[in-house]
Amino acid sequence: MRRIAFINEKGGTCKTTLCVNMGAWLARRREKRVLVVDLDTQGHAGKALGVDVRGLTPTVKDFLLGVATPEEVVRSTAVPRLDLLPANKDLASFPVEVAPHQDRTEKLRTAIDALPPDRWDMVLFDAPPSISLVTENVLRAAREIVLPVALTYLALDGCAEIMQSLARLRAERGEAPGVTLIVPALYRKTQLADEIMARLRERFPDALARTMLGWSVKVDEAQSHGLTIFEHAPSSSGAHALAALADELLERAPAAEAKEEGQEQGAAAEG
Ligand SMILES: Nc1ncnc2c1ncn2[C@@H]1O[C@H](COP(=O)(O)OP(=O)(O)OP(=O)(O)O)[C@@H](O)[C@H]1O
Ligand SMILES: [Mg+2]
User: Fold this and answer.
1) Pairing between strand 75-76 and 82-85?
2) Which ligand 1 atom sits closest to the C-alpha of 222?
């Protein structure tokens, strides 16, 4: 079961859009069994999948606290094989509730470890836009990262911050998830966007996706209707890009796993 976090501490970088739509493509067209785990109090992953999350109970908070089983919390969606673990404002009290617990940064990892091992092929975490206890949990539960970078002048900052968080985690625990895919998002042809792309290509030649998600009103519209882009505008440029990105993620699976095994072997040899 791949565990992939869509994360960037900057807000509005298309984390939710990529998580939900790439998940939908992989479930519907590539027949993967996908679980989207919403970890944002905004509940946008649920909303983007047409689920009314306001006042919903139980939610991901109950899953994290171990007071609800996956069967109780997970909901199916209109997309075949795509399930959702929903979030809403309830999640806001999570940091306070677990503050006295020593394992407060491990709650998500523990809960995911306890999922039935053969139920899903991929778990996709939609992370919140902040450095918080929830983000810490996501970084510890994920094995891979998809890092969406909005091509604005702050794009490289967002990248640098997440790389620092990963380096810190690696120093603290001896392991951290690998960056499988860096996705250039909200691309519009400007000199600045092209310069940022050139810098990204230079700094992250392996992880940088071949496909960019361009700015497209259809993507925004789909989200506001609670539909995936493949239902709302299947022949739009946004749909083509999101499908291609999902396939890139799938294609990179063996490489990421091989690297992980290699690292483990390396660590074993050193130990
Ligand atoms: N390719 C696109 N073209 C135009 N608008 C887009 C595109 N992708 C996403 N959007 C819109 O941009 C906004 C932010 O996208 P999204 O919610 O995916 O970002 P996010 O990183 O999850 O945000 P947050 O940090 O608040 O969680 C949304 O309104 C979304 O519909
Ligand atoms: Mg979001």
Assistant:
1) antiparallel
2) 31
Range of the domain at 88: 2-235
CATH code of residue 109: 3.40.50.300
Q: Take atom 2 of ligand 1 and give the residue whose Cα is closest.
A: 215
Contact 40, 128 (CB under 8 A): yes
**Nearest atom in ligand 1 to 19's CA:** 18
Q: How far, in Å, is the centroid of ligand 1 from the Cα of 114?
A: 31
Q: What SS3 class is residue 144?
A: strand
166 occurs within a structural domain: yes
Whether residue 22 lies inside any domain: the answer is yes
Residue list, ligand 1 pocket, CB within 6 Å: 11-17, 40, 44, 129, 186, 213, 215-216, 219-220, 223, 238
Closest CA to 188 of 213, 218, 205: 213
Is residue 114 assigned to a domain?
Answer: yes
Q: How many domains does the chain have?
A: 1
- Prior bond to 116 cis, omega within 30? no
Is residue 196, in this structure, part of any structural domain at all?
yes
How is residue 53 written in tokens?
Answer: 């999350």
pLDDT tens per residue, the chain (271 residues)? Answer: 999 999 998 889 999 999 999 999 999 999 999 999 999 999 999 999 999 999 899 999 999 999 999 999 999 999 999 999 999 999 999 999 999 999 999 999 999 999 998 999 999 999 999 889 999 999 999 999 999 999 887 778 888 888 999 999 999 989 999 999 999 999 888 999 999 999 999 989 999 999 999 999 999 999 999 999 999 999 999 999 999 999 999 999 754 444 444 444 334 333 3
